[in-house]
Amino acid sequence: MDEEGNPTWKVSSKLRANARALWKNSTDAERILWSELRGHRLGGAGFRRQVPIENYIADFICHAAKLVIELDGGQHFSDEGEQADKRRSTVIEAKGLKVLRFSNHDVMTNRGGVLETIATAVAERAPTPTLPRIRLRQGFGGQERGREQTVRAAKQIS
């Protein structure tokens, strides 16, 4: 990751195509969770979905918190599936990311608990969010009337 927390790894076209296919064919649990995470809806944290990392595709990632969310269907609960998940988590965590795993059943039956766990992890790992930008319409004082200017909320004058 670079200084701003953006990934620096390269992604093969095959892995990118697989990520797009997973995005288009997401499970009900993935769609439900995405509806809660998208658009900075969970405490202002930005998430992306179906993100390639090494040879894997993470279900959801918050780059600011260096947090990966994985949803596991029934195939993950066999001995073989659990071993594969451990290998996957080890590779992802070697990139400095934390992995949280939830079953599809958890998302479907305990959405509030899942979201609370994610929000807590984001709060623990993400840097303090910056103040939101607002748009002010300037007038008088030498400024061109009607011209918009972007300022930080902390610099507003009452």
Describe this protein's structure.
This protein has about 160 residues and is an alpha+beta fold. It folds into 2 domains: about 110 residues, VSR Endonuclease (Endonuclease, Chain A, 3-Layer(aba) Sandwich), CATH 3.40.960; about 30 residues, no CATH class. The chain has a 4-stranded mixed sheet, sandwiched between helices. It has a two-stranded antiparallel sheet with strand order 5-6. A hairpin with a 4-residue loop joins strand 2 and strand 3. The protein is globular.
What would a concise description of this structure say?
The protein folds into 2 domains: 13-125, VSR Endonuclease (Endonuclease, Chain A); 131-158, no CATH class.
- Poorly predicted runs are 142-158
From the helix content, strand content and strand pairing, which structural class follows? alpha+beta
**What count of structural domains?**
2
Report the major sheet: 4 strands, mixed
Identify the CATH architecture of the largest domain. Answer: 3-Layer(aba) Sandwich
N/C terminus separation? 40 Å
Overall form: globular
Looking at CATH, which topology of the largest domain would you report? Endonuclease, Chain A
Strand content: 15-25%
> Helix coverage percent of residues?
25-40%
